[in-house]
Amino acid sequence: MSSPGSPDRSGDGRWDGEVDVAVVGGGACGVMTALRAARDPDLVVAVFEKSTREGCNAAISSGSLAAGGTRFQAAAGVDDSPQRHADDILRASGDEEWRPVVEALCAVAPELVEWIADTGYPIEVGMDMPRAGMSVPRLHSDVGRLGGGRLMRHLTTLLEAQPHVAYVDEAPVVDLVDDDGVVTGVVVEQNGTLQRIRARAVVLAADGFANDPALVREHLADLGTPFYGGVSTSTGDALAWAVRLGGRLRNMGAGLRSGLVVLDHGTRVSPALPFNGAVLLDVEGRRFVDEESKGYSSMAAVLQQQPRERAVMVWDAVAMAATRNSEMMRDCLAAGAIRDAATLPDLAHTLGVAEDTLARGLEPLPGRRALTAPFHLAWVTHGLLATQGGLVVSPRGEVLDAAGRPVPGLYAGGGTACGLAGPSSDGYSSGNGLLSAFGMGWIVGNALAAARVGT
Ligand SMILES: Cc1cc2nc3c(=O)[nH]c(=O)nc-3n(C[C@H](O)[C@H](O)[C@H](O)COP(=O)(O)OP(=O)(O)OC[C@H]3O[C@@H](n4cnc5c(N)ncnc54)[C@H](O)[C@@H]3O)c2cc1C
């Protein structure tokens, strides 16, 4: 596939290699696209990955997969469906215009989660993973709750076993090649050399732009100066190339935020804590929000408005027992990010607040359980994990131009495409990120395998 590179991006029309499918980015969307496309043994697929040393968001994610209507839910007595899943997402986002894409992704979600399980990955539905806006338990996770790193290692190992797929690491794509608006390949940089790789289909799976300060300033200035909790590779590389070819950007002001980032540590406490009685208090020990009413992304904006952009989350042994079996709480404990207070006076002393104010702050809201000493606590602030705005795509993953026509040969998924949060970060539902990425990888990869990309 590769030969000594051409000196510049135009390459005087010469190609240095040829594949059927070139995938830009070897994270969640890219690996799934390649795995599904590779079911056609006549397709040659190359995944060009900027750097696995720097990593992808999928590998540092919690690995929670949202899917409605799986056999795991059925076995647990959960009545769910792709339609209910889509309706929940759209209720949170308010983005009805995006319904066809949301419904397409929710439709394939059960199949893809069950397929991952059938490849030997231990999956269960997280009955202990309630989330705001999720009308039934719908997040699926690995048994043992080790997070996205384990999942990505599993999928990448499957990919490596495919004889006609090349996963090329330390090989950032730096541009697209087109012939009068028809995408015909990519320009890849390897060892300081540029190579033009011809491809019948190019899939942009390079995630979003959360680590590009200029783009974040341009589109997400209202977030202030959040802690950044994503990977360094999310620099929005693919967006400008696609826009040059007529692609459109949408919902660029939306992000996946978290209001659960532990100050000075960068770990996150479990989003299930509020559903187990945990309360959020301001710097004076007063409660300021119904913790269950907000998803972790919309909670970020609430914390941003608090004095010193912080709050303390307080919980007890019961809440700890219900949540500690997650990679998030394990990370917090390992980092020393959780402190303890034996009694209410101890807690007031630790927080530097008046005991009577604190006692009022800890009073349970109607229908909620009361916390009992001893207590656990963590100071939390708001963070940005990933962006949710991106390229307008069809429900089949085709990149669309302003007239709604596909840019020939070009597909996008995951964080490179417009996500499911709608115009604001408040509309993000838990599990949307990997649903967009794996879901669109599934859809595009299957279509490429079925169609043999136009041959
Ligand atoms: C801390 C954290 C926790 C999360 N938890 C969850 C969760 O539990 N559930 C959920 O649904 N979502 C979660 N998310 C969101 C989810 O991880 C992302 O939405 C998802 O990984 C996006 O998939 P992707 O394939 O678009 O990008 P990624 O998985 O980030 O992969 C993109 C890949 O593209 C590569 N790349 C970038 N530019 C180039 C280039 N020019 N050339 C070649 N390669 C390139 C990158 O190196 C990277 O490997 C979480 C995110 C974070 C940060």
Automatic annotation (TrEMBL):
Residues 20-424 form the FAD-dependent oxidoreductase 2 FAD-binding domain. SUPFAM superfamilies: FAD/NAD(P)-binding domain, Succinate dehydrogenase/fumarate reductase flavoprotein, catalytic domain. Signal peptide: none annotated. Its cofactor is FAD. Keywords: FAD, Flavoprotein, Oxidoreductase. It comes from the Bacteria. InterPro entries: FAD-dep_OxRdtase_2_FAD-bd (IPR003953), FAD-oxidoreductase_2 (IPR050315), FAD/NAD-bd_sf (IPR036188), Succ_DH/fumarate_Rdtase_cat_sf (IPR027477). Coiled coil: none annotated. The keyword Plastid does not apply. The keyword Nucleus does not apply. This is FAD-dependent oxidoreductase.
